[in-house]
Design goal:
Blueprint: H1 3-18, E1 29-30, E2 48-49, E3 58-61, E4 64-68, H2 71-82, H3 87-101, E5 111-118, E6 123-129, H4 157-168, H5 173-186, E7 188-189, H6 192-200, H7 202-205, H8 209-215, E8 227-228, H9 231-250, H10 252-263, H11 270-274, E9 279-281, E10 284-288, E11 291-295, H12 302-313, H13 318-321, H14 328-345, H15 358-361, H16 364-376, E12 390-397, E13 402-408, E14 419-420, E15 423-424, E16 450-454, E17 457-462, H17 469-483, H18 487-490, E18 496-499, E19 507-510, H19 515-523, E20 528-531, E21 544-546, E22 553-556, E23 564-567
Parallel strand pairs: 19-20
Antiparallel strand pairs: 1-2, 3-22, 4-12, 4-23, 5-6, 5-13, 6-9, 7-8, 10-11, 11-16, 12-13, 14-15, 16-17, 17-21, 18-19, 21-22
Helix pairs in contact: 2-3, 3-5, 5-9, 9-10, 12-14, 12-16, 14-17, 14-19
Amino acid sequence: MSERRREFLKRAAAAAAAGAVGVPGVPGIALGAGRAPVDAEGIASDDVVTPYFGKKPVASGRNGLVITSSPHATRAAVQLLRAGGNACDAALCASVTQTVTEPHMTTITGMLAMLYYDAATKRTTYVSGGMNAPLAGLPGWNPTDLSTGRSAGVPGWWAGFEAALAKHGSRPKAEVVQPAIDYARNGFAIYPFLYGEMLVQLDTIGKTPTGRRIYMPNGALLPPGSILKQVEAADTLERLVAEGNQFFYHGAFAQAYCDAVKAAGGVITPKDFDRYEVRWMEPARGTYHGYDILASPPPDNGGTHVIEALNMLELLDLKKMGPPTESADSLYWMTRVINEAYEQGAKHTDPSSHDVPLEMILSKDYAAMRLRLMKMTPVREARPAPPPGSNHVTVVDGKGNIATILHSVMSLPWQNGLFAMGLSIAASGAHFFRVMPAPGDRATVYIAPNIIFKNGRPVLVSGSPSVGLLQNIVQNTTNILDFGIPIGESVLRPRFGGPATTVPGANYIEVDLDEKVRAAAEKRGLRYFVTSPWHFMNGSFEGIHIDPATGTATASADPRRSGMAEAV
């Protein structure tokens, strides 16, 4: 090892430990173009931003704003906005870039869904590229299947991307995908969060020759700061640009995917791919204290759950009680109503083949009945949730168009260790433990893209990844709308989260949320699992607040992820 390399690794480790920003010579994201120039030793030569957990700058502007959990993706999307792209173009650019720069959170073999507001027509549309269960069915489905080919669903990511770009995009597909191709072919530096997930998944990441070529080229995991290249993925992305859905669903990729899955005990066939279709759906609709809410509908029922929870909270005097960081009453009821919505959501199945009474579920009368019954019954324990593994992207452009996208690996990263043409095969069946779809049906997933309007104008658009996405969205939404807390302060506040994976029946809660407030809520029957501050399992608020008077958009990346908000 050269002296330069030793010095680089020393500086990289120190910078990562400190959460450094803009440290010369420490590779992260090159601020110039959509690629990271490196020297002969694989060391980034530009000054860069190292993706880090912790407090981030607030970004604001009137000509466009992007927030994602990846600085690489945020910068690529902002550059596309500057080149004349709209919110849809930029959000899709960020999403496909994240499949390369955040492979521990997302993959093109997962799912993608977008809520889009067109400022010219004032119409909001929703496209669902969720995953289907295999036509063959999964009898005897159990947790051990997650490490096999039986874990794979029929992916909707690329179909959702193609459909969204065709309907709302304005730039060529090649331009939208190019930053992702650049990062895959030329590489980027492995940052702390990515390395941590690689290390945790050491059991599976190198199970196949493809996994070893990418992440263990010398027989061991690439270390933090080294350059990660995904050349096979770059080749596949280029074919997707050239051949699109034909290649993915009816051609060589579909066959390669099915072959890899079958060899590992799975049951997906080319027929499953051939019949896949995206769904254009009407958003779920609700109101809250004079605001109008549009959100993802079943089977992507997290948006429905947000509306359900806000319907119940509207019946309480939150403003009098105070935010959940300060009020045991607010903490208690907010935890209960979200747990209730999530628990009941496990009864929702694919509305294309089962009756899901959405109008009743979202009604104010139903909310009043539920809250009244909850006051009479013991506290419901938090229902177990699928593992984390997703990204959210939110973009507002200079014309007022809005795109908010959830896309995801739908499971732990590299959970089955399988790859097809350089792309990780998502173990998306992790969501089948909540609701098992009928053979060939669409999976029910609790994702929650949402846009909130006041007098017809968008004022808050958001979403979140991770186990605690519902709790995250509801807490930040009420912080901003009910208590006037600036978005940059709201994301920093202590948070309670979703079901704790290690303590059945408990909700996550961050240790710096006032212990007296937590203890008072626990005395009333709730259970919490205390975590360190800014815990990544408690979601990442990819939200943008829009001042209705000035049109200024404001965002701040959540400290619980490695994200970045940037204005045009």
